[in-house]
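Dear H.,

Thanks for agreeing to be a second pair of eyes. The structure we're designing against is below in token form, covering all 307 positions.
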């Protein structure tokens, strides 16, 4: 498919919910980028204190309000009001590298790519002394290259798409769906290739605690559970749960050889966290199947004010 060559006008869309300090860091980094956004649209999704005064500190930022819960709805509203022919999605708690938008523009123009997902790394104050969750997520979280090559989607914390392509694929789904995965796989089925752009890098903070990591996986498991039905689906579900509990040992070579962290202590922390979270996932999968209450974990969406 050939794409129209027009001067790149980039609109950055940022969903926001109770992450005021993180949003300020994100906007500050965008302002300092080598290629600045032509337009930034922040869509507040029901914060207890909307970030009006934060957005007002930046010249090219527009604040919208989306009462329907879910980041997918927030992103859709942002796209509806975007004037750019390139839409760049980033989360409020992500920090773009200075090269982020310059790399995005290059990929859109030179690779003839309708959709691109970039590299996401864990933001760490002291890479030599990580927390268990930081060590684990540095290796195992946000592996956009694998998501794209193996599952046909890129996470919306670092996703760039031509506006004409977004119109063809359609909007993101709501809160009861893993909206970035569903949207990317829908695009892939429609023949819209997703390109991995390693120079298009953003940094994401690790989750603050093991409990927060558990909550993240609870939501993911609940989304996955809704896709399987019948006794055959239940058999596959149980088999996957049991395999998860036994899988950490097989990941030791990956932990030992990973270039995303350094030091034996950090690698040991990554393994301990990996073993703990995979056992949690295994138990939760069996519990959800037994209790049939997957929807409860989807509803436990971020409602706490982070600053």
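And this is the sequence the design step returned. I haven't edited it by hand at all.
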């Amino acid at each position: 498919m050939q794409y129209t060559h027009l001067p790149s006008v980039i609109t950055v869309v940022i969903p926001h919910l109770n992450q005021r300090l993180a949003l300020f860091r994100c906007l500050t980094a965008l302002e300092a980028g080598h290629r600045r956004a032509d337009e930034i649209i922040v869509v507040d999704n029901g914060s207890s204190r909307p970030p009006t005064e934060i957005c007002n500190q930046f010249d090219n930022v527009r604040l919208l309000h989306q009462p329907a819960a879910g980041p997918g709805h927030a992103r859709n509203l942002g796209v509806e009001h975007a004037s750019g022919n390139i839409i760049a999605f980033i989360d409020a708690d992500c920090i773009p590298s200075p090269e982020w938008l310059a790399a995005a523009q290059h990929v859109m123009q030179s690779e003839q790519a309708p959709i691109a997902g970039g590299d996401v790394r864990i933001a760490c104050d002291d890479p030599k002394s990580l927390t268990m969750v930081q060590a684990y997520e540095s290796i195992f979280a946000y592996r956009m290259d694998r998501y794209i090559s193996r599952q046909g989607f890129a996470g919306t914390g670092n996703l760039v798409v031509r506006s004409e392509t977004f119109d063809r694929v359609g909007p993101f789904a709501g809160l009861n769906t893993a909206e970035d995965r569903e949207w990317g796989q829908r695009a892939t089925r429609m023949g819209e290739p997703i390109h991995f752009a390693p120079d298009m890098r953003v940094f994401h903070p690790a989750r603050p605690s093991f409990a927060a990591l558990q909550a993240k996986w609870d939501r993911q498991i609940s989304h996955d559970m809704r896709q399987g039905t019948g006794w055959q689906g239940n058999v596959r579900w149980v088999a996957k749960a049991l395999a998860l509990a036994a899988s950490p040992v097989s990941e030791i070579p990956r932990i030992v050889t990973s270039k995303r962290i350094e030091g034996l202590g950090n690698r040991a922390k990554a393994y301990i966290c990996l073993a703990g979270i995979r056992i949690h996932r295994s138990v939760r999968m069996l519990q959800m199947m037994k209790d049939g209450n997957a929807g409860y974990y989807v509803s436990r969406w971020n409602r706490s004010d982070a600053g």
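Two observations from my side: Residues 120 and 142 are 6 Å apart (CA to CA). The chain has 13 helices and eight strands.

Warmly,
E.
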